[in-house]
Design a protein that fits this description.
This protein has 266 residues and is an alpha/beta fold. It has eleven helices and eleven strands. It has two domains: 119 residues, no CATH class; 127 residues, 3-Layer(aba) Sandwich (Rossmann fold). The two termini are 26 Å apart.
C-alpha cells in the first residue's frame, strides 16, 4: 500500500515531491479523492484560534514559517512550535523573553534555548547541511553579540554552513585584516555593527561577495537607537552592501540563506 500518510511528516524540502506523488496516485486511481483530501486538509494552514500556522510557506518560498516570539504568551509559543514540528519541520522562535523561555522549556523538553540569541529551536531530526558555501557572520563589538547570535542560530537552523568573526570593529581594524581570509572564503557575509556602522562599508570594500548589513541599537545618544548606523549603511559607498532593519539578525540570515541556497532543489 502506498505510504502517503507520511506526507505530513516529511521535511519541508520533500513536501513538493510528496505532494506530486500524491496527485499522481489520485490520477492513476490508486488513491481515493476523500483519502487524499484527509491528508491535505491542513496543508495551507492550521487554525489554532489565536494563530493561523502557515504550513504552505515551505512549498511557496522553500523555508518553513518562523515564529516571532515577542508579544506572544509562552502557551502560544509552545502551541505554534508544536504544530510546526508536527508537520515535519524544525520550529524556530525568535525574540523570546527569558521568563517565557523557561516556561516553554518546561512544556517542550526537547526544545533548545539560546539566551544570547533569545531564540528557541525545536529540531525535527538532524538539520541537513545545504548551500553553495559558507555564510560568515561578522560583528563589530561584543555588545552586538545578541544580534549576531540571532543571525547565527537562524542561518544554522536553515541548514547553512556558518563561520563567525566577532569584535573586529573599525576602532581596531587590524583585528579584521588579520582574519580577512575567512571573509574571502565566504559565499555571503553578514556584517553587524552599531555606533556609526562603518564596518559594513569596510567589509564591502574588501570582498567580491554580497554583504548584508545589520545596524544595531548599540551606541550613545546620537546613535538614536541604531538610526545613525542604519543611515550610514544605507549610504555606503561599497556597492555590494544591502541593509536590513535595526537589530534584525534574523532577516539578514534569511536573506543570506536565499543567496547561499539559490537554485538548489527544495
Amino acid at each position: 500500500m502506498l505510504f502517503f500518510g507520511a506526507l505530513l511528516g516529511w521535511p519541508d524540502r520533500m513536501q513538493k515531491a510528496a505532494l506530486r506523488s500524491l496527485l499522481d496516485a489520485v490520477s492513476r486511481g490508486e488513491l481515493g479523492v476523500e483519502r487524499a483530501l484527509d491528508q491535505l486538509r491542513d496543508l495551507p494552514f492550521a487554525d489554532l484560534g489565536f494563530a493561523q500556522v502557515d504550513h504552505h510557506r515551505a512549498l511557496r518560498v522553500g523555508l518553513p514559517e518562523v515564529v516571532f516570539g515577542l508579544g506572544k504568551t509562552a502557551e502560544q509559543i509552545s502551541a505554534i512550535a508544536r504544530e510546526i514540528h508536527r508537520k515535519g519541520n524544525t520550529a524556530l522562535v525568535t525574540r523570546v523573553e527569558p521568563d517565557k523561555a523557561v516556561r516553554v522549556l518546561a512544556e517542550l523538553p526537547g526544545i533548545e534555548h539560546d539566551p544570547v540569541a533569545r531564540t528557541l529551536l525545536l529540531r525535527h531530526g538532524e538539520i541537513e547541511k545545504r548551500g553553495r558555501g559558507v555564510i560568515c557572520v561578522v560583528s563589530a563589538g561584543t555588545s552586538d553579540l545578541p544580534v549576531a547570535a540571532e543571525a547565527l542560530v537562524t542561518a544554522r537552523a536553515f541548514g547553512n554552513e556558518v563561520s563567525e568573526l566577532h569584535d573586529v570593529g573599525v576602532a581596531g581594524l587590524h583585528r579584521l585584516l588579520a582574519r580577512r581570509e575567512q571573509l574571502y572564503a565566504a559565499t555571503v557575509v553578514i556584517v553587524i555593527a552599531g555606533m556609526e556602522g562603518a564596518l559594513a562599508s569596510v567589509v564591502g570594500g574588501l570582498i567580491d561577495k554580497p554583504v548584508i548589513a545589520v545596524p544595531t541599537s548599540v551606541g550613545y545618544g546620537a546613535s538614536f537607537g541604531g538610526v545613525t548606523a542604519l543611515l550610514s549603511m544605507l549610504n555606503s559607498c561599497a556597492s555590494g552592501v544591502s541593509v536590513v532593519n535595526i537589530d534584525n539578525g534574523f532577516g539578514a540570515a534569511y536573506c543570506a540563506t536565499l543567496i547561499n541556497q539559490a537554485g538548489l532543489p527544495r
